[in-house]
Amino acid sequence: MIKKSILLIGISILIQGIGTLAHECHIFTDTSIKSFQGTLFESSTKGNPVVQAISPEGIHRALINLKTHCCAANILNNNSAMLKSCKNDAILLKERTNYAQSAFLFDQLLDVMMRRLAVDGKFSDVPDDKKAQERRKKIDTITNKEDGVLPIQIGKEYEKYRKPQAQFYLPKYNGVSAQEYQNTINNLEKEKKILSKYEERNLTTRYYNLCQNIIYLMTFLPVSFESEQLALAQERCTSLTEQTINNEAEYLHHIIVQKSDLLLGQTMKNYAEEYLINTRAEQLQERLSRMMTNLMGIMRMIPKLVPNCS
């Protein structure tokens, strides 16, 4: 989580450093979050499958977090309409600290979506990604078991949730106009249903497409679309998602090694115990056999020895 926060801040600094737009707080100047989402936002994205991929709750939380930062940082504090707008949404913003320190919607959407996929429970009003949640439970079950596990069992789970699905990867944004990028994604959506069948995509695909989903969403919104800024944001965002995918693979590698070593140790212990039990049983059987042989010999000698006792 620490690395993620650093990278998110890096994205916002990068955008501010090269762009003419200092922030996106102006979208709330004359409206509340509820009004913005219910009018401008929903009219721009109505029926768009990307909303399913990001989730309406995630979008709502990102807007709250953006406005919280704008109001807390006193951005546009000389604007009476903005002050009134902050006051109107005070109940949503009060004592809130769990948001990215950024005045850009891209950063806030990215923060919320990464946390949703990470199943970190940071935002109770945003449902965790179902496939990520399912994956987390299975991994937790494996790691919490006292017994070892065959690597192939963990490998099968990895194939199911993490195997690359390159045919469903969205093209990265490269600085074209908003309309051009829209058209590109729209054409792919018609052909492959990448967004509308989001629930069928595995976790690697969801992470890979996350940055593109956000940029595609922003092409429909009443916010300034700064192509140069977003191209750099895409680059940093991709580094973040790729690092997350690599971290998952490394974590899984550690689990495989740990559980394999544990299984090997348990197997050797069981073998040793079984060997000792069997060996001891054989030794006891040999001793009993010798004792029985000796007893039989003594019993045969008794008739011969009895006369000598009289």
Report on the structure:
The protein has 310 residues and is mostly helical. The protein folds into two domains: 2-132 and 167-254, no CATH class; 267-309. 70% of the residues lie in helices and 0% in strands. It contains twelve helices and no strands. Helix 1 (2-18) packs antiparallel against helix 12 (227-305). The longest helix has 79 residues, at 227-305. The chain is elongated, with a radius of gyration of 33 Å. The relative contact order is 0.12.
Give the SSE order as H and E letters.
HHHHHHHHHHHH
Number of helical elements:
12
Number of domains: 2
Give the total of beta strands. 0
Low-confidence stretches: 1-11, 13-21
Ends: how far apart? Answer: 98 Å
| Mean pLDDT across all amino acids | 77
What is the beta-strand fraction? under 5%
Structural class: mainly alpha
Computed Rg: 33 Å
Biggest β-sheet description:
none
**Quaternary structure state of the chains depicted:** single chain
Share of residues in helices: 55-70%
User: How would you describe the shape?
Assistant: elongated
